[in-house]
Design goal:
Two copies of one chain form a homodimer.
Chain A (H helix, E strand, L loop, with lengths): L24 E5 L2 E2 L5 E5 L7 H5 L4 E5 L2 E10 L9 E4 L1 H7 L6 E6 L6 H8 L6 H12 L5 H10 L7 H13 L12 E5 L9 H11 L3 E5 L9 H8 L6 H11 L1 E5 L7 H10 L7 H14 L4 E8 L8 H17 L3 E8 L7 E2 L1 H12 L7 H15 L10 H10 L2 H13 L14 E6 L4 E6 L1 H10 L9 E4 L6 E2 L4 E7 L2 H13 L3 E4 L12
Parallel strand pairs in A: 1-6, 3-5, 8-11, 9-10, 11-12
Antiparallel strand pairs in A: 1-7, 3-6, 4-5, 4-7, 13-16, 14-18, 15-17, 15-19, 16-18
Helix pairs in contact in A: 3-5, 4-6, 4-10, 5-10, 6-11, 6-12, 7-14, 7-15, 7-16, 8-13, 9-16, 11-12, 14-15, 17-18
Amino acid sequence: MNKVPTEPSAACQVPSNGPFSPARLSLRRVLIDTSPENVAYMHRDCEVYRAEGFKALSKVEIRSNGRSILATLNVVDDENIVACGELGLSKAAFAQMGVVHGHTATVSQAEPPESIGALHRKLDGERLKLDDFRAIVRDIAEHHYSKIELTAFVVATCRDELDREEVYFLTDAMIEVGRRLDWHEHLVVDKHCIGGIPGNRTSMLVVPIVAAHGLLCPKTSSRAITSPAGTADTMEVLANVELPVEQLEEIVRNHRGCIAWGGTANLSPSDDVLISVERPLSLDSPGQMVASILSKKIAAGSNHLVLDIPIGPTAKVRSMPDAQRLRRLFEYVAKRMSLSLDVVITDGRQPIGFGIGPVLEARDVMRVLENDPRAPVDLRQKSLRLAGRLIECDPDVRGGDGFTIARDILDSGRALAKMNDIIQAQGSKSFDHNHPELGALNFEVRAPEAGVVAGFDNLQLARIARFAGAPKVKNAGVDLMCKLGDTVEAGALLYRVHAGFAADLEFARQACSKSTGYTIGRADQVPHVFVEF
Amino acid sequence: MNKVPTEPSAACQVPSNGPFSPARLSLRRVLIDTSPENVAYMHRDCEVYRAEGFKALSKVEIRSNGRSILATLNVVDDENIVACGELGLSKAAFAQMGVVHGHTATVSQAEPPESIGALHRKLDGERLKLDDFRAIVRDIAEHHYSKIELTAFVVATCRDELDREEVYFLTDAMIEVGRRLDWHEHLVVDKHCIGGIPGNRTSMLVVPIVAAHGLLCPKTSSRAITSPAGTADTMEVLANVELPVEQLEEIVRNHRGCIAWGGTANLSPSDDVLISVERPLSLDSPGQMVASILSKKIAAGSNHLVLDIPIGPTAKVRSMPDAQRLRRLFEYVAKRMSLSLDVVITDGRQPIGFGIGPVLEARDVMRVLENDPRAPVDLRQKSLRLAGRLIECDPDVRGGDGFTIARDILDSGRALAKMNDIIQAQGSKSFDHNHPELGALNFEVRAPEAGVVAGFDNLQLARIARFAGAPKVKNAGVDLMCKLGDTVEAGALLYRVHAGFAADLEFARQACSKSTGYTIGRADQVPHVFVEF
C-alpha cells in the first residue's frame, strides 16, 4: 500500500515559462555543527521563498557553484543567525558547497531518491536484485537518504530479511561505490573482529607479528562510534593514523604493514552512513554485519582474512549455534567474493587485557610487545593465536606451526621492532607506556564481599568507560584489576575509572551505581564457553 | 544480536560523592524552529560539559524547573547564538521547559527509553503483548523516541509483522495515552476515509446531514501532512477549527455536530508522533492504519463508524482482495473495541469534486450544500451515500432508506442550515463561495490531442497542488475541468493551477512538466472499478 506513483503521462501540454530561474539567496556559514545531518537555515520572512512551505517537506535541495546538496530546513526568526535574503548552512553543509560567504544559491524541494522504489519493494517483503542494491547503496553513499529512509532500509534488511545471495549483492554494491585498493601482491592478509568486547586490541599485535613474518598486512580500522575505543583511536595514542592514501601505500610497501584509520581511504563510504543509524539502534544484524565487514576488507585489497567471532553472555554472539550460523554466512559471501576466509570463534565472556580506553589499551599493547611481566596474558595469547592462523596462510608454513612462529617473533622482540618501524613511518607521538598519563580524576570500585569474579557485563563496562570520556578523552576509561575466576577479598579493588572532566566522572559514577559490570559469586558460577581454540 | 544489557549486579560498592549536583547552564531561547525535533545548542568551549562528548551520543536530557526534555545536541562555535555557560534551546524545546530566559538547567546523557527492550524483541520478530505496546506507545507519546527509533518501530510493525491481536493491542495502547471524550449518549456516530483521494471532502457534507437528522456527530479531523488539504484545513476556510475541548463539547450539545481540528483535544497523541515518520516514508501499512484511525475515533467518543475505503489504480488500496483484507482487519479490531463499524468500499480512480486545496474544496462543498447547479455531482452522490449509511444506524430508520432521507435533508436546505449553525458556533470566517478568491498566480494545463480522459494519477495531482502551496496557502491548488470519461478536444483546458507565490508556481509547473496526472486516451481504456455502492 505504498504510494509509489505510476508511470507519468508525458503527453499533456504544460505552458513553458522559459528557462526556470529561481530566486537566489546569499549563502552564509552558520557555526553550528549538525553533522551527520546537513541543516539549512532560512528566515521566516524570506521574501522569495515560503520557508514554512518548505519546512513541511522532508528535505530541500540547495544548488550553488555547480554543486548540489540535500539539507533539512530550519526556519529562523533571528536576523543574527540568518537574515532575509540569506540562506544559512551548517558547518559541514557549507564546506560541501565549496564556496565563500556571500556566494548565491537556489533552493528547491528535494526529489525523492531514485532508489526509493526499490526500498519500498523491500519494505513490502520482496527479494531485491543486484541492481536494486546498487541503486540504494549509491543513494546512501551520496547522502540522498534521510535518517528515516536509512533506518527503514536498515530495519527492512535486518534479521532474516536478506537471504545470503542478497547479502552478497549488498556487499558487492557497497564495494562498488567506494575506492578499492590494489596492492599488486598475491597474498594480502587482514584480521578483523566483529566487535563487542572491550579492550580487544589484538590487531595492534597481530599486524606487527605477521608483517615481521613478511606477510603484507595493510590494516585500516575504524574509530569507535559507540564503544570506548576503536583500533584507530588506540593506535592514535602512539602514532598518526590519518594518512593520505599515497603515504599509506608507501608505508605498507616499506614495512609490510600499517595500522591506520580507514576514513581517509573512502573504502565502503555507504557503510559509514549506515552505521550512523545502526549504532544508535544497537542493531547489528548478521546480513548487515557481513556486508559491512567484508566490503571494507575487500575494498582495502585483502584476499585472506582471519575473522574473530567472540561468544559470551554479553557479547554480540551469545550461543554457539548463532556463531555457527554467522560463520556460514560470512563464508558464503566471502566465497562469492573470492576472499579466503578463516573464521575463529573465541572467548567473549569478558574484556581482553586490563585497560578500556585508548591510552589504557595502548599501554597493554606495548607491554605485550615488550614482554613486560605486567602484560595481560589473555591479550598476548589471543593475539598469538590469531597471528598464528594468519601466518599459516603462508604456503611455506605447515598447518599447526603458526602459533609457534608468532610466539618466536613476539618473544624475540621482532614484533616490537616492526611496531616501532610502523609507528615511526606513520609519525610517532610521545607516549611512555611505562608511565602512561591517565585521566587525573578517578574513583575506585571495590568488591562488596569476598568471593570469585563470576561474571562480566561487557556492555556496562564499555558504557562506564564511554561516560568517563573515552575515546574523545584519550586517557579516560576503566582499568581492570581482576578478571573472571579471580578470588577477591571483601573491599578488594575491582577497577579504577579515570576521567579528564568532573562532569564525565560523575556520569561514570552514576552508571557504576546502577551496575558495576562485575558479578562476585562462587567459582561454579563462572560461565563456561566452548571455543575453538 | 541486540546489545540489550543483562540484569545489573547491584551488589558492588561504588563510592558516593554525596548528592550529585551537576553544573548548571543558563537557558537561552534560540529562535530556530526545529520541530518536530527538540534541539539544544551548546558552545564548543563550554567549560563545565564536554559538548563534543555529548554529541557522539544520540540525545541529551535537559532538566530545569522540575521538568525534563530530551533533545539532540548541536555544538556551536558562535557566541551570538549561544555563549559559554549558556544552553540554547530551539523554540519548541524552550517552550516545553516553561521557564524564562536565564533560568538554569542541567544536562545529562539521555537514558534509552524504557520500552527499547520491547522494540528490540519486535525487531527480532517476536510477538508483543499488550503491556509491551503500552510501554512503547507511552514512550512515543512522551517524545522519548528518536526519529531513528520511531522509524524502527514503524518498519518493524509494517506489512504483516503485526497479527490482528497485536493490532488490537496497539489500538488499545494508543487510546490509553490520550484523552478520551465521553458524550454521554447511546449513539455517537462518525465517518472516516482512509485517505489518498484528493478533494474527497465528504465529511463536510455528511456531518451537517446526519446532525440535521438528529444523530450526534462530533467530527474531529486532522490537518494535511503530505496531502494538499485535510478536512480541518478546508473547514478552516469557513470557520475557526482550533477549539478548546469545552467549547467543542458545547457546540456538539447545541448543534449535534461539529467539524473541528482534533489536535487541541489530545486524542491519541502517539499517532501524531508516528505520523511524523510514516508520512515521509509513504508507509501506510494496514496494521498501523487501523490502529491510527480506530484509536482516534474511539478516543473521540464515537461508537458507530462508517469507514470509506476507496479503490483505484493510484489509490491507497489498489485491488478488491486488498480492500477486503483491510476491511476484515478493521472489523476485527473494531469488534474487540466494541465499536460498531460499517465499511464501504468506494470508487478511488480519480479525485472527488473539482477543487484540490482548501479554498477550492470549500467552494465545492458549499455549492453542494446550496444545491448550486455548478456543484460536483460525484461529491454530492458519495456524501449522500455515506450519510445514508450512517442514518441507517438510527433504530427508527429501515435498511435502505438512509439515502433518501439524506437526499431530502440536503435538497430541502436543512443540511445547509445545519452547516451554517455549526459555522456560526465555531466562529465564522468571511468566505464567498460564489466568488472564491483563488491564488492570483496561475497557469493552465491543456489536452495535447483529442480523446477521452482515460486515467488519473491521484498522487501526482496532490503533489502539484502541494507544490502550488496548498494547504498553507489556503487559496492555492488545482481546479479540475474534466473528469474520467469526459471527451476533450485537442487544446481543451484540463485544469488550472493557482498559487500565491512565484516560486511555488514554478515548482508546480516543474511537477506538471514531468507528469500532468491526466491520461488522454480511448473510452475503452478508462479503468473499471467494482464498488459496493
